[in-house]
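I hope you will forgive my troubling you with a question about protein structure. Could you please explain, in whatever detail you think fit, how the structure tokens follow from the sequence? Thank you for your consideration; the sequence and its tokens are set out here.
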Amino acid sequence: MYTFDYQRPDEAQAAVAALSANGDAKFLAGGQSLLPTMRLRLAQPSALVDVTRIASMKTITLDGGKLTIGGAMCHAQVASNADVKRALPGLADLASRIGDRQVRERGTIGGSLANDDPAACYPAAVLALNATIVTDRRRIAADDFFIGMYETALEPDELITAVEFPLTERAGYEKFRNPASHFALVGVFVAKLADGVRVGVTGAAPSVFRPKELEAALSKDFSVASARSVTISADDLNDDMHASAEYRAHLIPVLAGRAIERAMSFSA
């Protein structure tokens, strides 16, 4: 590791100002992705602006039909929060299975979304649940947030302060994980909303995406059989040492069926 400045502001605007003043600085949330790349010298920020102690980003609120999770809430807090477990049990279940215990105690929802790892779990939930990403300056719909591999709609100095989730009828997540990294080889989040079904798939492609043919089938018949009857094209899916594109295509409807089983297992 090399020398860098460390700042820990207590307000979101102060954090943004600190980053804007230094073009080589980076926000530090959980640090689960940033710090390993710094150790390998793949990233060399001159300063880290720690946002994990900003009180306004460390809250979870349930207000009517909306659940709001602060950007600095770690995975373990999301998994154990009573409001999340009651309002969106599928999201709490997802958070409880991210990485290992150490990662869940440090990694944050805002950091995960800003990094947009193509195999991360949260992007699938945010996309399927039609969430809104709230930053220090605007609100971004999930469909407009994820651009490509490690690429989002965020400006370089823009900070995710919260994520707003509308409540759903049913939601569940299942993943086939890499045994070493615990990242999703393929992960599928299924959400039954009042106006239809949305599905978010992670790990299978360069970026999280919605399989429209699967959504159409499940909107007509929200069942395991319906999910598994869909054929997903292997075109544009990842093909690497861990799994072929064809295998990932096969996994998507299988995992969608298992996600529905999980969704149905939660109390309505």
Summary: The longest strand covers residues 184-193. The chain has twelve helices and 13 strands.
